[in-house]
Amino acid sequence: FLFLKQILKRATTSNRNLPPSPRRLPVIGNLHQLSLHPHRSLRNLSHRYGPLMLLHFGRVPILVVSSADIAHDVMKTHDLKFANRPKTKAVDIIMNGGRDIGFSSYGEYWRQMKSLCSIHLLSKKMVRSFENIREEEIVAMMEKLEKAISSSLPVNLSESLLNMTNNVICRIAMGRKYSLEENPMDFATLLRTMMELLGAFPFGDYIRGLAWIYKIRGLDRKMEEVSRTFMEFLEGVLQEHVDEGEKKETFDFVDMLLQIQRDKTNGFELDRSDIRLIMLDIFVAGMITTYTTLDWAMMRLIRHPECMKKLQDEIQTYSRHKLYVSEEQVESMKYLKAVIKEVLRLHPPGPLLVPRQLSEDVKLKGYDIAAGTQVLINAWAIHQDTTTWGPDAEEFKPDRHLDQPLDFSGQDFKFIPFGSGRRLCPGIGFAMALIEVTLANLVNRFNWKVETRPLGDDDQYYLAEATGIEVCRKFPLFVFPSLASSTL
Ligand code: HEM
């Protein structure tokens, strides 16, 4: 019977019209063709095999999409079928089997969790109400930078940006700062480790016989440790809110989640571990992405003085030499928005978005794709497609967005840093509000220089990418700020 089943399976598979595939090796499939930066190796493969490729990571079929046209088919035409997320061991351990928003299966639980965040934290009205918090934290960061000017030592701007983003997010979501400096655990390193674990290609999941590698390399232990440390921290935050109870003067997002848990609003059962996972998503999905966009933006502007100058001129036209550039003033700054778009085009924090999984068979461009196939959308490759962006697609040229204003909220598939469709990022407005006003103020208040690197390997150094599901700059950005004459 088994023999008959094998023959039948082979016959049906061979009748299928499958997308082009690079040659694969026994057992590992195409895993040997990936580098530490999968978005880059997959783009190189797509140049040979086309914008729709079927790879195999071990035994698991992986569909790789590298064109705007096919991204449209996946995230618009067939969005519902592609709305699931695959589960890996890292997701199992760190996200409690995908009980958070980003990795949860498509369905009622996901819908409820996402709409909770969208309404009570990320809506336009809520984002606007956090303006004071953004201003206070940006001013505090700038005061520290100003103090640092008197010493002739370089400042670690990446660290300042991470601290500021963390302070803003903690104050908004949890009611107070849980600053990186005051925290006994090394928050930044922990988050980076978590990014790496969630983004690492899970060999043990793809090749069952290799699951022991997780144990030998200590990955199981690392995942459990990272998860435990974070959960203990978040449980402490929840308990603090419960203990303060009636005495608390403010009402923040955590209070709101605890209230929903108590009152079972809309018949929606939320337990304490679900609340911790929503909070974790805000750190994983919200904090690193926002910080890393600012970090790439400052690096690009400092290394393109002509863009920096143009931006400073624009900001001064609207801010009229004020010390703090307000959010209302930022609203009108077209070049600032073009700079941020260019940064998100060249450095989308999630270059392969977040993986999806097909829930039923589908035909794409005449090819048969089977249910269960995992899907990687190479946004980074789509953003560098020369047919859309021209022969200078790899260069940093913010002006291109002035002539060709593409929307990035999931409507235009040539530019998808936030994904699209049902799984579209709900934090676009939240992230953009902080990125725009931070950048405007840093550029308005200071002039910037970076150290000249002795070996002259500037591009390799400044453009180097770390590994992980969200791609940060590999090395911190050390800078020498000085006060801009216009604000003296
Ligand atoms: C520059 C900043 C950001 C970028 C580039 C970004 C990008 C993304 C991307 C690419 C996805 C996957 C979309 C898809 O699968 O189609 C995503 C999902 C998500 N993002 Fe963001 N994001 C950013 C900021 C934020 C912020 C500030 C928050 C919340 C505070 C947030 C919360 C989420 C959540 C909860 C999801 C999961 C959505 C789902 O699976 O339904 N993101 N984001």
What does this structure look like?
It is a single chain. The radius of gyration is 23 Å and the shape is globular. The protein is built from 22 helices and nine strands. It has a four-stranded mixed β-sheet. The mean pLDDT is 89. The chain is an alpha+beta fold and 488 residues long. It binds protoporphyrin IX containing FE. Protoporphyrin IX containing FE binds at residues 101-102, 114, 117, 122, 281-282, 285-286, 289-290, 293, 349-350, 353-354, 417-420, 423-427, 430-431.
Give a brief rundown of this model.
This protein is α+β, with helices and mostly antiparallel strands. The chain has 22 helices and nine strands.
Number of helices: 22
| SS strand fraction | 5-15%
Instruction: State the separation between the terminal residues, measured CA to CA.
Output: 84 Å
* Overall spatial form: globular
**Rg from C-alpha positions?**
23 Å
Bound molecules: protoporphyrin IX containing FE
User: How much helical structure, as a percent, in the residues?
Assistant: 40-55%
Average pLDDT over all residues: 89
- List segments where confidence is low: pLDDT < 50 over at least 5 consecutive residues: none
Structural class: alpha+beta
Largest sheet: 4 strands, mixed
Total strands: 9
- Give me the side-by-side strand order of the main sheet: 1-2-7-4
